[in-house]
Fold:
Amino acid sequence: MANEAEALRGLQGEGGAEGSIIRVENVSKSYGDKPVLENVSFGISRGERLVIMGGSGCGKSTMLKMMTGLEPVNAGAINLFGRNIVGLDAESMDAIRTRFGVLFQSGALFGSMTVSENVAFPMQEHTALAPSVIDIMARMKLAMVGLSGYEDKMPSTLSGGQAKRVGLARAIALDPEIIFYDEPTSGLDPVTAAHIDGLILDLSRKLKVTSVVVTHDMVSAFKIADRIVMLHNRRVVESGTPDEIRNSANPAVQQFIRGEIEGPMTMGQEQEELEKELLASAAGAVKSGRPWWYPW
Ligand SMILES: Nc1ncnc2c1ncn2[C@@H]1O[C@H](COP(=O)(O)OP(=O)(O)OP(=O)(O)O)[C@@H](O)[C@H]1O
Ligand SMILES: [Mg+2]
Structure:
């Protein structure tokens, strides 16, 4: 049944072609003296779609940044393609980075580049392809996410859903073996979110890509996942198939998937800090005579 041992399922393989493509082993992470994750372990098999879920601030994005070598790890190992990336030299890390794509929580498109330049960028950086070939490939990637005709648009003119799709086209630019998604459906209406879920499934099935999706969108998680890992209180508290998660006896899991206020998941300290911050910015707005978000 779903428990911590289950989370290690992907750890069984050799880390080679047929085994686990990603292995997170006893990873701990603090920012300053604030611990965020402690002794977290889970594995992902090739071709699998793993969803990492958990409350806001529980360390999902941090986990994803560590798995992509963007954030240092305090303890433990992260094996990608059978190689521990913790402490890996920059050159070797760059080589591994060409084998995966990332869709960032914020989209992170280059604002001064057109849509097709954004998608072409990884190919210009990491391949020796001629510009005309790169241009055709960028168009193909945009067609795959349903954005033919958007090549010359600037990111600032796109809707949230379109920007996510451009980010996705950029993430698949180098035909990755793994795609990491950080909150791919956040801020989108349910229909657009369903389109993004469809794209994630489509890419997974057509490209046989391994997918790691960080999300707190439960509809999306249950639609996408082969397996779900839930983080809570700095640890993996549950892991299993969507059905196993639905039937979990863990009260934190039940509270989370039902979106209930009462339960072991509290906002505590962070909620108080957030409230203080909001009050402070509201006070600043009154002093200046215009709302703090007013752009001119
Ligand atoms: N660069 C950083 N420096 C210091 N603290 C950080 C940094 N990045 C994240 N944190 C803190 O670490 C904790 C985990 O943050 P993280 O962004 O990983 O959470 P999350 O689960 O992705 O949340 P959300 O669902 O809101 O995106 C939070 O308390 C956050 O404030
Ligand atoms: Mg996050």
